[in-house]
């Protein structure tokens, strides 16, 4: 009982010490100041990086815009990690923790943690080679496994892919095994146009060919005039003709819509009908009555 009261008295004396609370107050002020300065330096560094890349755009010697966007995101990511690490060390020092001894023991601890952080190391190494080999960049439209969308960010550990429906998929770099990049080479737009079975195919092809030669002047995303391949299929009451167009990367869907619109308007101008559902009615009454008459005559 006596020992507990002695411990309690020493604790009360320690907490009531004015110097202790002065030191705690100074540490809290230092920590707040360190966090404010860290946030300020991160924002300032990101603005500086943005300005540097803006200046590089005017330089005659420059890398591609895809590469610049990727490097800027990566450097901003690295800047954030470095500033927060330095801020963490300064906070420990403000709390009167021996940082030097902590760093000295970090080698041994790091060796032990390394065995359990193999996935983290793999993510970082894979992320480095993704950027080094330029497999894909920020702004590219890619497919990675079951995920497909636009690359929002490539970090040291993760890659963020935004799907066209708005979901943001965050993938560890180590899990990226196969990548399909749709944004490097030109895309191809496929358009199937159907006309009525009774229409003149040669006339329809001539009208469509004349239209296709005019389209590149209206749509800058077309690399060259679209090409009419000819009759793709004949089904029921329709004749299907296929048009292909080489366009800029990831512009095939928009151009395909425009081609359908333009072809429909031009065919309407020349009175060429598109197919519509038809039903043929067959009346079998006469055939049945004639069969009855033949039976009666034979009897």
Automatic annotation (TrEMBL):
Residues 191-274 form the Mechanosensitive ion channel MscS C-terminal domain. Signal peptide: none annotated. It comes from Bacillus songklensis. Its main location: membrane. It is found in: Cell membrane. Pfam families: MS_channel_1st, MS_channel_2nd, MS_channel_3rd. The chain crosses the membrane at residues 20-42, 74-95, 101-121. Keywords: Cell membrane, Membrane, Transmembrane, Transmembrane helix. Residues 77-118 form the Mechanosensitive ion channel transmembrane helices 2/3 domain. SUPFAM superfamilies: Mechanosensitive channel protein MscS (YggB), C-terminal domain, Mechanosensitive channel protein MscS (YggB), transmembrane region, Sm-like ribonucleoproteins. Belongs to the MscS (TC 1.A.23) family. It is a multi-pass membrane protein. InterPro entries: LSM_dom_sf, MS_channel_1st, MS_channel_C, MscS_beta-dom_sf, MscS_channel_2nd, MscS_channel_C_sf, MscS_channel_TM-2, YbiO_bact. This is Mechanosensitive ion channel family protein. Residues 119-183 form the Mechanosensitive ion channel MscS domain.
